[in-house]
Amino acid sequence: MNIKYSLAALLAISSIHAQEVSLDSISVTATKVSTATKDISQSIAVVDEKTIEDNNILNIQEAIENIPGVNAESSTNSPSPRLIIRGAGLKARYGVREIMVMKDGVPLTDPDSFTRFDFIDMQDVLSVEVQKGPGSINAVNATGGVIQLVTKSVFQEDKNRVKIGIGDDGQKNINLKVRGELSENDFISATISRREIENSWRDNNEFDSTQATIKYGHIFQDDSIIESEFSYTESNMNIPGSMTAEEFELFKSTGTQHDTSYQWQHSARDSKIFSINTKYEKEVGDIVYKPRVYFNAWEHFHPVSGIINDSDDNKVYGTDLELNYNHNLFGEKAVLVAGVTLKADITKDAKKYEYADYITLPSSSWPFTPYISETLSNNKGDLASTEDSTTTLYGAYLMETFSPTKDITLDISSRVDKLSFDISGNQITDYSYSAKNYVAGVGLYNIDKSYTLFSAKVGAIYKITDSTNAYISVATANQAPTTSELSDNSSLDKSTSINYEVGLKIRAENISYDLALYENIVDDEIIQILDANGNSIYDNAGKTKKRGLEFNAVYAINKQVGFGGSYAYSDFKFVTFNESVAGSLVSRDGNYLPYIPKNQYSLFATLNLSNGFKSRITTKTWGSYYMDNANTQKYEGYKFVTDLMLGYEHKAHNIQLNIRNITNEYYAMEALKDVYGNESYKAAAPRSYMLTYSYKF
């Protein structure tokens, strides 16, 4: 097999142009080998390049928000989504946990499962793949699934492009992509992006980023290839606060959020990230070797609740040494995928500071000490703590895909990883959520903890007809706590997730759909509990059971008109869980998990005329969900939040108008309630628009 042309095949995506989510497509995520999604024994969705371009997708949340079983919401129009897959990720205080995010096979997720979405320039992304549930050989310390971003390879022929966009709320976007051949065997490409948004409808919500990527590739005489990527990101993101119930009612009547009573008015995340990765691919007989090495260095200034994080010496080193062995078994073609992984995340002299500028008010209760009522800036005050940490992960994986009969395909996989935390520091002062002020810290501390993580999957595909496959799978995986969770509760144990799934996949000429039924049982699930002051407390929940149904369908009436939709039913409950309330344990057995709507669906329609005119309309609905573990109150969710695209393409020119939330619905992207009855709301973005022009040359 010629490596040069196999790489091109790997990147090819065959899809119905009408699709919101590409179903008749090739995946590189589930098996590490290019495989049609119909032939994968679990739920997987692929968002294709046309959908990304038509929706003018500039952050990951917009790309995957309409996939059934995925809860993706953002209140900032920036790379800071609340991201949950089948309930996994629900515990995250901020960012994304329990979900593995990768770009071209390189993990963007740290060993302790935290992901920085600042890394991602969606304008360089060819497709997004979402694999749901535990058991993936890609997923290290992640029970929720895998999100893989596939960018355009330097070897793939493509026209150069300049793209400019302007919109309301100070939105500006410019992107330049160029590619060239240095010689017959040497290729280079570059991408530069600049984004800005003021988000003036709420306080402390500005965002800007500058990103640059250079790729270089070489084809050797034996058809082996090497490809390297160098990228730099500088991102400045303010993070707005939440609202009380009264302030949320005001937002619903005005569409703006100003002068809230939120204590931490100046949260932010300013990051600088440099990364490099190199992958090599060589075929020797029936074996294809795919070694990869990567490195990134990052720094951030991150004011959050009570503390200002300032860390400028963080480095991640990693390698993944993979091979694919093509052979025959039972008279049919089979593939063995095997590899080893090693990764280290090293942070030196990370500092935390008190806020320098804030207002204090006298307390009305004993001991009547002043409390911080509001910050005035995010200037650093006195040093609160210093910390060094090293998180290491090493492991091995193995997967065999074979066909014992012509109509049955089996895949059996497993991986074992060792995850170790070595954390030491000096906590001089700490913010007390009960006193609402700074108190003496614990002094010197050390956390030395290790976990052995196991994951495995057995799946079967049965070919009913040429267009219809049925599948069944059983998968399991472990999830370790994160460094921040261990800091709150050093006795946390790893959780164990077991997923049972059956499904049906149809890929006909004009219609395709996926149907999945699953039951996911999690023992010792790590759950976030909110106290009366918004403090996150983590505990092993005992056991949760998540049952669900997911359906996704696309129908192309002809080459010009198509429509489709998705639906997810989620029945997620605590089996055994005692929640701490005012020092006492209260049973939540049988209660529903908060935040997850029982019913969620989306609909879309597309029009692509031969004269160049195009249009796409998408609408989504979240049903009601409980705001707390006690199930005392529900948020009603939202209905028919609709996005519209109108565009025109002529030769090298493309102009389009994208309007998000066209009916200007005012709703909460998150509604929570703590154990003492205090409600908090985070507003979703009101109507916004961007006019974009691109030219290919």
From TrEMBL:
Subcellular localization(s) per the UniProt record: Cell outer membrane
Principal localisation: membrane
UniProt domain TonB-dependent receptor-like beta-barrel: residue ranges: 251-662
Entry annotated with the keyword tRNA processing: no
Cellular-component GO terms for this entry: cell outer membrane
PROSITE patterns, alphabetized: TONB_DEPENDENT_REC_1, TONB_DEPENDENT_REC_2, TONB_DEPENDENT_REC_3
Membrane topology according to the record: Multi-pass membrane protein
Entry keyword Transmembrane: yes
Highest taxon of the lineage: Bacteria
Every TonB-dependent receptor plug domain range: 38-146
Pfam families given in the database record: Plug, TonB_dep_Rec_b-barrel
Signal peptide: 1-18
Keywords: Cell outer membrane, Ion transport, Iron, Iron transport, Membrane, Receptor, Signal, TonB box, Transmembrane, Transmembrane beta strand, Transport
One GO MF term: siderophore uptake transmembrane transporter activity
Family listed: Belongs to the TonB-dependent receptor family.
UniProt name for this protein: TonB-dependent receptor
Record organism: Sulfurimonas crateris
Source organism phylogeny: Bacteria, Pseudomonadati, Campylobacterota, Epsilonproteobacteria, Campylobacterales
